[in-house]
Amino acid sequence: MDKTISCLKAAVADIPDKARLMIGGFGGSGAPIELIHALIDRFRATGSPKDLTVINNNAGNGSVGIAAMIKAGMVRKMICSFPRSSNAEAFNEKYLAGEIELELVPQGTLAERIRAAGAGIPAFYTPTSFGTELADGKPTEEFDGKLYVRERWLRADYAIIKAQLGDALGNLTYRLAGRNFNPLMAMAANRSIAQVSNLVDLGSIDPEVVVTPGIFVDGIVEVPHPRQEEALVRAGVVY
Predict the structure, then answer these.
(1) Sheet of 123-126: strands edge to edge?
(2) Which of 18, 90, 169, 237 holds its CA 20 to 30 A away from the CA of 63?
């Protein structure tokens, strides 16, 4: 099955209002900036999608990527580990004004909740956050003399991710640290859309090095020269 998509606009065309949307990346590393900006373009043209719940490691930086989504008013809720950074003014302003919700999740727990969803594990126990406000209202249990908090899996309707190589079947590899949350999110979403720097012929990727098998990818679009979030922020780009 050929999963290639002709353009960025078509790649994000089906993401609806109120969707739970996972966005790959650790800061700017592995962030699908072009897919995010295509989604913003669609919102500006049509007013949709809006009221999104965005799941990411952070709440964006500067005036590009997720920060630009938040500034545009597309995001109703953030689920993340690092909502504040040196350039998180967009989120800070919306949060202080009561215009965006926040679910704060420790980073290891965030990764495991996503991984658990991809593996079909509805809940697990972790000692992280026990005794803090983040554990309020959550079941706890003692194992071998230590108290643990029960956490639920974290699923999404859509995931937009970034990879290095991909083929028409959706098999993906990643570049260095760009791997981060992307493979986990591809597995945890009902539909996953990947932008790749190089779309290669079938058989060009050694099966031994495939990180995300095509079964977890629903669409793939080539972006030959992806922009880096940090470079855009340093240049003062406002999207």
Answers:
(1) 123-126, 146-152, 140-143
(2) 18
* Dist CA 181 CA 29 (whole Å): 10
Q: How far apart are CA 195 and CA 173, in angstroms?
A: 11
Give the pLDDT score at 150: 97
Whole-angstrom Cα Rg for the chain: 18
Q: Is the dihedral of CA 192, 121, 101, 64 positive or negative?
A: negative
Q: In whole angstroms, what is the distance from residue 221 CA to residue 3 CA?
A: 9
Cα–Cα distance for residue pair 122/112, rounded to 1 Å: 11
Q: Which CATH number fits domain 8-123+153-234: 3.60.10.10, 1.10.10.10, 3.20.20.140, 3.40.1080.10?
A: 3.40.1080.10
- Residues lower than pLDDT 50 in the chain: none
Give the side-chain half-sphere CA count within 13 A for 43.
Answer: 23
Q: What's the pLDDT tens digit per position in 4-21? A: 999 999 999 999 999 999
pTM over 0.85: yes
Query: What CA–CA distances, in Å, run from 152 to 110, 114, 226?
Result: 10, 9, 34
pLDDT at 86: 74
The C-alpha atoms of residue 50 and residue 25 are separated, in whole angstroms, by: 21
Are 232 and 203 contacting, i.e. CB atoms less than 8 angstroms apart?
Answer: no
Q: Which of 115, 123, 153 is nearest to 140 (CA)?
A: 123
Cβ–Cβ contacts within 10 Å for residue 118, how many?
18
Tens digit of each residue's pLDDT (9 = 90 or more) over 51-73:
999 999 999 999 999 999 999 99
